[in-house]
Specification:
2 domains, 37% strand, six-stranded antiparallel β-sheet, elongated, 427 residues, disordered N terminus, disordered C terminus, mainly beta, 3 helices
């Protein structure tokens, strides 16, 4: 009897332990589920952004023209007109990629800023526009180093806990809890402004041949010739900068003291051509560009030759009897000087640069000055009458820092003083 009682007591104990164990486990799992269901969704302060050129057909490769740039910098050509584009999760239809179970509560705010490096290496803001658009042309057409910055911002809210959710109170009962947003709506969670930003460097390369001005001045008659080439250059420097390389006048009366060759990028509508369609404009003014010494101003458009590998441009003018620029005509026994200067599109023609300019024979031998000026005592024009006399050529070469080149080669004719010009005027 006692043995049977002990047996059933042990069985009962096992039954109690077997029942209590699963009940405790179920209670723990339920508590964990409740905790997970009420865990707050954290909204990040910012999200990633990519920034680049939308159409990269004419974005040049790294190391273009041997340029050592910062990693990630883009290589552009001037006047091409690239379109910038950025992408981030701020512009999705929903905010799930930013934070789980969240939503956007405002439209995105998008700002584009363009800075250009000045001559001292400082980045100066050129434009800053709140466009609220994911693309922007950035208004970059001039050569130089730039940084483009895009900043975006948008408000994101979490869904929060369920309205009227019951949570245990200290006494073991239940109470109702509601989370409110700043607007006072129920059932919402945190609201935060999420930002995205990116900055990229852009090297915009000069694809324009330098402008070149050449002045010729004779010292005869009423002309007060400059004492030196340097003095003649000084007379041109401010004019070429002020006029951005274009001729300072189209009135022939303004060229009585000196005759000019102007070789420049052209009129306003011609200056913004894409690199492989760029042209140049040749203008000649004064009395020394025809054998009669008649005053004239003539202008015309020329083509340029671009290298399809590095997009460097070369404007080359070759004068001759069958060309628009036949040559320069000087009188025998009359001293004359010349000077040439250039401006570079790469620094917006802000400074005047030196040009190699000389007179040489057909075999390339340079003709030297006769004292402070040049002077020829024997005519060589017309050529059919003076075939025994040397041919002379005036040449110039101008290079900018980006490797674009402008060259001029034209005949220099020495005419007899019987040609009717005196004092720089046709008589």
């Amino acid at each position: 009897m006692k043995l049977g009682y002990k047996f059933w007591l042990i069985v009962a104990a096992f039954m109690v332990c077997g029942t209590v164990g699963p009940v405790m486990a179920q209670g723990t799992e339920a508590a964990a589920d409740a905790t997970a269901g009420t865990e707050a969704v954290e909204i990040p302060e910012s999200t990633d952004m990519t920034l680049g050129a939308k159409d990269d057909k004419y974005v040049m490769p790294e190391g273009f023209r041997g340029k050592n740039t910062e990693e990630g910098d883009l290589q552009w050509l001037e006047d091409v007109g690239y379109l910038m584009q950025e992408n981030s999760d701020l512009y999705n239809v929903d905010a799930a990629a930013i934070a789980e179970a969240s939503k956007f509560t405002s439209e995105p705010n998008i700002n584009w800023e363009v800075k250009k490096e000045d001559s001292e290496g400082n980045l100066v803001t050129e434009t800053s526009d709140n466009t609220n658009k994911a693309t922007n042309d950035s208004n970059i057409t001039d050569p130089g180093y730039y940084q483009v910055h895009n900043g975006g911002a948008r408000q994101v809210s979490t869904a929060g806990g369920a309205e009227g959710e019951e949570t245990p109170d200290a006494a073991g009962g239940a109470e109702t809890s509601t989370t409110e947003t700043a607007e006072g709506a129920e059932g919402e969670g945190e609201t935060k402004t999420v930002t995205a930003q990116q900055r990229i460097g852009i090297e915009v390369h000069d694809c324009t041949s330098p402008d070149v001005w050449v002045a010729f001045q004779e010292g005869a008659g009423s002309i007060d010739m400059a004492k030196s080439e340097e003095e003649l250059k000084a007379n041109m420097v401010s004019k070429i900068i002020e006029n951005l390389g274009k001729p300072f006048s189209t009135d022939v009366k303004d060229y009585e003291e000196a005759s000019y060759v102007f070789l420049e990028e052209g009129r306003d509508e011609e200056r913004n051509s894409i690199p492989w369609e760029k042209t140049a404009r040749l203008s000649i003014a004064g009395t020394l560009f025809n054998e009669r010494g008649a005053p004239k101003f003539e202008t015309g458009k020329l083509g340029s030759k671009i290298d399809q590998a590095d997009y460097r441009n070369h404007v080359n003018v070759v004068g001759g009897e069958d060309k628009s620029l036949k040559g320069v005509y000087v009188r025998r026994n009359v001293p004359f000087i010349f000077a040439a200067i250039s401006t570079d599109n790469g620094n917006k023609r802000a400074t005047a640069g030196e040009v190699t300019a000389k007179i040489e024979t057909a075999d390339g031998e340079e003709v030297m000055k006769d004292g402070a000026s040049y002077m020829f005592r024997v005519p060589n024009y017309p050529r059919e009458q003076y075939q025994d006399q040397p041919e002379y050529f005036f040449t110039t070469v101008a290079n900018d820092k980006d490797g674009n080149v402008t060259t001029i080669r034209m005949p220099l004719y020495v005419v007899d003083t019987s040609a009717a010009f005196e004092g720089g005027k046709n008589q």
